[in-house]
Design brief:
2 copies of one chain form a homodimer. By secondary structure, chain A is an alpha+beta fold. Chain A contains 5 helices and 5 strands. Chain A starts with 5 loop residues before the first helix and ends in a 6-residue tail after the last strand. β5 (133-147) of chain A pairs antiparallel with β3 of chain B, so a sheet runs across the interface. Chain A binds a DNA duplex (30 and 30 nucleotides) through α3. Chains A, B: InterPro entries: AsnC-type_HTH_dom (IPR000485), Dimeric_a/b-barrel (IPR011008), Tscrpt_reg_AsnC-like (IPR019888), Tscrpt_reg_AsnC/Lrp_C (IPR019887), WH-like_DNA-bd_sf (IPR036388), WH_DNA-bd_sf (IPR036390).
DNA sequence: GCTACCCTGATCAATTTCTTTCATGAAAGC
DNA sequence: GCTTTCATGAAAGAAATTGATCAGGGTAGC
């Protein structure tokens, strides 16, 4: 893939802050003509640098008051165990993020739920019941100090 | 704030997947007229349910190959220590997310960097050098199994 | 029943935004 | 020197958004 020039970087920075800006606005702020801005955005989209444009919602106003960071250890790391765990992660929208980690735990999950009770239900039904899951340590989020999707460019 | 009806929920689900859809498209998929869809989106935006519309970028294609989950413990929890740590978090775009947690650690950070070297530099310069930071445990992300911004609605 | 109220869908005009097309100028290759 | 290529900006056309208006259909209260 081609190098990403300074102009495109400026557009990306704007887009990850607010993609509802008009092209003419973005062009002006990025110091280029509207045509050029349009072409660059098209390129970035085609190249997959821009993965998606999404709306970010307020979890509180949608009654998802609980956010949990869970650390998971599997019993073994055979294909079947990993596949089984992956399926759980994939199929449950309550699990927003999941990363395989180096270090003390195998996985870190970020989970959102309405309250402690519904979290507990979800937890025991889908994670603890899974035969490959050895251990889950849940930490409740007391405060979201930062929750950005902006990559440092 | 008012209750959120089923129609609005359908719009929100669509918007968190792809906010570049035309209003007419969204209206059709959500099973309502364009006028109604427009009014509902306006409401949701005014009520702050829709916080922002952003572009999600591909970290790999932008040469941010490293993602780290770091757990931080502070020396004490006086105002000054928290303020000092908060400032570090706020001022560094490499730190994408930061949550104050219950449990064994005070904070969990998600950090992105180009490579191990630049991470190491960032780490020692801004976190380990902070007098209020007692301990940092870094876990490298081996695989991003899921990284969604969609709330479960 | 009747009224008032609210939500909905249809329609329309004005504006804004997106997309294509065309022409220009700079740089590279022959 | 000439051509080709490429990125750019201006302008025009196509499409979408915005905001208002009006009418129909529930429904709750009187």
């Amino acid at each position: 893939m081609k190098e990403i020039d300074q102009g495109s970087l400026r557009l990306l920075r704007l887009l990850q802050q607010d993609c509802s800006l008009a092209l003419s606005d973005m062009a002006e702020r990025a110091g280029m003509s509207q045509s050029t801005a349009w072409r660059k955005v098209q390129e970035l989209e085609a190249a997959g640098v821009i993965r998606a444009r999404v709306a970010l919602l307020d979890a509180r106003k949608l009654d998802l008051k609980l956010c949990v960071i869970a650390h998971v250890t599997l019993d073994d790391h055979h294909e079947e165990a990993i596949a089984s765990f992956s399926a759980v992660v994939r199929n449950h929208p309550e699990i927003l993020e999941c990363y395989a980690l180096s270090g003390a735990f195998d996985y870190m999950l970020k989970i959102r739920a309405a309250d402690v009770e519904s979290y507990e239900t979800f937890m025991t039904r889908y994670l603890l019941r899974n035969p490959h899951v050895r251990n889950v340590v849940s930490s409740f989020v007391l405060r979201e100090m930062k929750a950005s999707t902006e990559l440092p460019l």
